[in-house]
């Protein structure tokens, strides 16, 4: 059996980053930038008021207080987005709204609550220093400044900044299109009637959800039977919209392992056993004229989920140009003892929490690869290396914390 790291290396060699192109700004959310983004403008674009009030010269309101207010004639009004440039002369005031351009000649803004709010004349009850309540042009961003470096993954805050700088589109790698197929004559669609020996198809929903959570576009095709020709026909029909195909089931050593039967003769799909538990049977390669990458995962739900997390997630991140490819390991103290077979890397479901006593992890459910309810109650995977056969209470464990951005 090959190791987990050896198998992952082969999968990452199979694919590369997708070709970038200009995408609408909002569609770029969660994607890494290909190039540095340089601001074309200052931000703020112009010096403006931080408050509703009166634009004045600070020297003209020196000594103002409520007992002896300074009275100035109001010679104009500035509203955000609906005013023309205004100049301020000595010992006058301009009524101004938040965000409106500061009149030339003014150097401070007196908040309206420190005045009588007059229209023709205004009484100012408190002195201001030059620059108070004023937002200088370029204070936040200067034109020509790099505001987002290549590799930056765009979040809501970055999207807000780039929209404020006038970017409607950005060059980014696209989201991989992932076609998800489940195999098995016994499978039924959720909501349909079950026969005595049939089960609902949870895997394709779970894997499609995993792909979406990773930032990909998921196409859940649904179920194919154990007929290799049917599987091959469905697969070929789907390749036109796939950057990656992910299947579950049909790759073990049974008589009805449809994926293995359909793809073994292709010549570019390899099936192997990986020294891990769960998830020992694995397959990968390319299919079709365009050599579309395909990853074939085992059919037991926990095996399928763990295999996606360990192998497919790094592939999707590589295709999007996201670093790092693999979810980082953290350390936590074991609260219960666990056993592990020698020679295999085991991924056990657990509950990770951080308290005043530090990071701790508690096993959840048993090790069976069919225990999907236990998987749903876990928020991490405890990683037990090939040369470890047990972790005791108080030992330090390596943990993959799930559902966390990285």
From TrEMBL:
GO terms under cellular component: cytosol
Domain MoaB/Mog residues, every copy: 179-318
Leading EC class: transferase
Cofactor section: Mg(2+)
EC number: 2.10.1.1
Family annotation (InterPro entries): MoaB/Mog-like_dom_sf, MoaB/Mog_dom, MoeA-like, MoeA_C_domain_IV, MoeA_C_domain_IV_sf, MoeA_linker/N, MoeA_linker/N_sf
Record-level Gene Ontology MF annotations: metal ion binding; molybdopterin molybdotransferase activity
SUPFAM superfamilies listed in its UniProt record: MoeA C-terminal domain-like (SSF63867), MoeA N-terminal region -like (SSF63882), Molybdenum cofactor biosynthesis proteins (SSF53218)
Catalytic activity entry: adenylyl-molybdopterin + molybdate = Mo-molybdopterin + AMP + H(+)
Organism of origin: Mumia zhuanghuii
GO BP, one annotated term: Mo-molybdopterin cofactor biosynthetic process
Function in brief: Catalyzes the insertion of molybdate into adenylated molybdopterin with the concomitant release of AMP.
Domain of life, per lineage: Bacteria
Pathway: Cofactor biosynthesis; molybdopterin biosynthesis
Keyword flag Plastid: no
Keywords: Magnesium, Metal-binding, Molybdenum, Molybdenum cofactor biosynthesis, Transferase
Protein name: Molybdopterin molybdenumtransferase
SMART domains associated with the record: MoCF_biosynth (SM00852)
Similarity field: Belongs to the MoeA family.
Pfam families: MoCF_biosynth, MoeA_C, MoeA_N
């Amino acid at each position: 059996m090959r190791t987990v790291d050896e198998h992952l290396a082969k999968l990452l060699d199979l694919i590369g980053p997708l070709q970038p192109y200009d995408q609408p700004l909002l569609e770029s959310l969660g994607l890494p930038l290909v190039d540095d983004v340089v601001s074309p403008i200052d931000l703020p674009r112009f010096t403006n008021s931080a408050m509703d009030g009166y634009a004045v010269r600070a020297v003209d309101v020196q000594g103002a207080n409520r007992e002896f207010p300074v009275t100035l004639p109001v010679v104009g009004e500035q509203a955000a987005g609906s005013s023309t440039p205004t100049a301020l002369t000595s010992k006058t005031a301009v009524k101004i709204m938040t965000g409106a351009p500061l009149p030339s000649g003014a150097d401070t803004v007196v908040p309206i609550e420190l005045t009588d709010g007059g229209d023709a004349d205004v009484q100012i009850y408190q002195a201001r220093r030059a620059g108070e309540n004023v937002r200088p042009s370029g204070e936040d961003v200067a034109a020509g400044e790099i505001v987002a470096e290549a590799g930056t993954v765009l979040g809501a805050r970055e999207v807000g900044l780039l929209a404020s700088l006038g970017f409607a589109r950005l060059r980014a790698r696209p989201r991989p299109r992932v076609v998800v197929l489940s195999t098995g004559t016994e499978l039924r669609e959720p909501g349909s009637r079950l026969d005595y020996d049939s089960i609902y198809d949870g895997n394709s929903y779970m894997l499609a959800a995993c792909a979406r959570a990773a930032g990909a576009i998921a196409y859940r095709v649904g179920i194919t039977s154990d007929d290799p020709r049917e599987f091959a026909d469905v697969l070929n029909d789907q390749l036109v919209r796939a950057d990656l195909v992910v299947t579950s089931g049909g790759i073990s050593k049974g008589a009805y392992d449809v994926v293995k039967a359909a793809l073994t003769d292709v010549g570019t799909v390899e099936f192997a056993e990986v020294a891990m538990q769960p998830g020992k049977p694995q397959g990968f390669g390319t299919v079709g004229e365009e050599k579309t990458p395909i990853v074939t995962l085992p059919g037991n739900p926990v095996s399928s989920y763990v295999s996606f997390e360990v192998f497919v997630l790094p592939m999707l991140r590589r295709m999007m140009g996201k670093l790092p490819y693999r979810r980082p390991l953290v350390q936590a103290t074991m609260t219960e003892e666990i056993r592990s077979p020698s020679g295999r890397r085991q991924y056990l479901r657990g509950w990770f929490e951080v308290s005043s006593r530090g990071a701790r992890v508690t096993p959840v459910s048993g090790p069976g690869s069919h225990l999907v309810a236990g998987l749903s109650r876990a928020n991490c995977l405890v990683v037990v290396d090939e040369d470890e056969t047990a972790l005791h209470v108080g030992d330090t464990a390596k943990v993959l914390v799930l559902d966390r951005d990285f």
